[in-house]
Amino acid sequence: MIELEGVPELVDPVMVAAFEGWNDAGDAASTAVAHLDKEWKGEVFAALDAEDYYDFQVNRPTVFLEGGVRKITWPTTRLSVIRVGGDKPRDLVLVRGIEPSMRWRSFCNELLGFAHELGVELVVVLGALLGDTPHTRPVPVSGVTSDPDLARTMDLEETKYEGPTGIVGILQEACTHAGVPAVSLWAAVPHYVSQPPNPKATLALLNRLEDLIGLRIPLGDLAEDARAWQVGVDQLAAEDSEVAEYVQSLEEARDTAELPEATGEAIAREFERYLRRRDGGGPPQSGTHATEGGEASPFLRDSPGGGDRTRPPRPQRPEAEAETDAETGTETDTAADADAGSETDTAAGSENSGETGPADSSED
After folding, report:
1. Which helix (H) or strand (E) holds 78?
2. Hey, is 185 helix, strand or coil?
3. Would you tell me the crossing angle of helices 241-262 and 222-238 to the nearest 10 degrees?
């Protein structure tokens, strides 16, 4: 039995989860949950036992000094609660951690135990994958669910994916079998600039989450960071003619695929977001959409692992345009522009489920 001492009764709570590792290209999903925790000052009320779920040779603990005393931080998953006020209050339960190394079923059951005790009405799991999408266009974010009724009522895709999956897919299925409504939101990260951070993908996930749960999310400096990130990648791409040519081919494929939507649902959706922000008090925050440009970039900094970030990886360009499978990272022979860039598509090569994780893992 899970005891939750000191946690107040929550109002229409939604659980929002993200996990570092295979499901988190560019750290976009885990950064989104960290942003919510920072902006709304979440209070940690529980942490899962690291011994139960993590291989410490894969996810190593870290040592630090506090007041001259050496302490250890163990890799784990923590839960925090956020009280969101306003005219229509709705509280959040944030789950942030690392994809577990073992005992995934027990891991999901423990999280579902917390969800049951807190009266969670909806679970939203965030993920990010690598795809053939240009950095200069809006980040594709797909919303998928295993529940046909939920797909109809919330205008989501019903996942039909078959193949290897990560903890995002496992948790969503566990929720469905337990009768808890669950949704996965997937952002597509350009595979040719996959190094974290990717504030543009993080911003796109938060915008979609805002639409889904009906809360106005404070964006802080994230919109400016997204603009600066794009300018920085523009500069890097301009230094390499092959990369610039490849990006142009992705743009053409994306624009062609989006022509019917550009004058329909996309415009209506953006206008509705503008009205919500205006009615919430004051003008809409500038730069809240991931397409906006920006100024000079501070993004050219070293990754936590110290890797060189001065140039994006040179993309592989096979003779036949190929899709990248979002779950395994393998390429298929289908045309790269078949599904490129729909706002509700995962990104080139991923089947409509969007359930899968990125080809590259950031677990280390």
Report:
1. strand 78-82
2. strand
3. 130
Q: CA 329 to CA 25: how far, in whole Å?
A: 12
Cα distance between residue 348 and residue 24, in whole Å: 17
Whole-model pTM?
0.70
Distance CA 128, CA 354 (A): 9
- Asked if omega into 197 is within 30° of 0 (cis), the reply is yes
For 323-339, the pLDDT digits (tens) are 444 444 444 444 334 34
φ/ψ of 323, rounded to 5, equals -95, 155
pLDDT tens for 110-127 read 999 999 999 999 999 999
**Distance between CA atoms of residues 363 and 245, nearest Å:** 32
Number of neighbours of residue 356 by Cβ within 10 angstroms: 28
The CA-based angle 158-205-130, given to 5 degrees, is: 75
- Picking from 80, 78, 75, 200, the residue whose alpha carbon sits closest to that of residue 128 is 200
Q: Are 354 and 144 in contact (CB under 8 A)?
A: yes
Measured in residues, the chain has a length of 364
Cβ atoms of residues 203 and 219 within 8 Å:
yes
Of residues 137, 344, 115, the one with CA closest to residue 255: 137
Q: What is the DSSP letter of 193?
A: G
Q: Which two tokens stand for residue 331?
A: 């390429």
